[in-house]
Amino acid sequence: MNQRAALGLFILLTLGGGLVIGALALPDAWFAQLHKPAFQPPGWVFGPVWSALYVLIGIAGWRIWRLPQRGWAWKLWWLQLGLNFLWSPVFFGAHRLGLSVAVIFALLAVLLACVIAAWRQDKPAGVLLLPYLAWVSFASVLNAAIVTLN
């Protein structure tokens, strides 16, 4: 497969998947009535941040896919993506606050392992995942705070 086409498919998978899931599980009246911590960013921040992160995630996945020995980085990349795509339907769709914390903490653990594995095999892929790791770390604290307040 052409490398540019493959890169485009990875970005389409991550960004497109994130946009579709985001559109299907939008904040609603239930979310509006929840108590939120003072450090909750305004709603408009999440779309641009996630869009940029999904592009980086796609590029990192493409870099890992190109490796002759993908190993754990490849398996963990797919697992983190699945957990990422699961969180919004659990939180916004099912309104399962406790389960959403379990999902996001699992995502954080798998993502950290993915960053380490990617870093060992392809340092640029690991670096590309660092902003995502930082954001999911923040989102984990935010999610836990919302659960605590509600």
Key phrases:
81% helix; Ferritin; mainly alpha; 150 residues; globular; 6 helices
Rounded average pLDDT = 96
The third-level CATH topology is: Ferritin
Given helix and strand content, the structural type is mainly alpha
Structural Rg: 16 Å
How do the helices and strands follow one another from N- to C-terminus? HHHHHH
The total count of helices amounts to 6
Strand content: under 5%
| Largest sheet, strands/sense/barrel | none
Proportion of helical residues: over 70%
Count of beta strands: 0
Termini separation comes to 49 Å
Question: Which parts are unreliable, with pLDDT below 50 for 5 consecutive residues or more?
Answer: none
Domain count: the total is 1
CATH-assigned homologous superfamily: TspO/MBR protein
Q: What global shape is seen?
A: globular
CATH class group: Mainly Alpha
Second-tier CATH architecture: Up-down Bundle
Keywords: Membrane, Transmembrane, Transmembrane helix
Main location: membrane
Family: Belongs to the TspO/BZRP family.
Organism: Acidocella aromatica
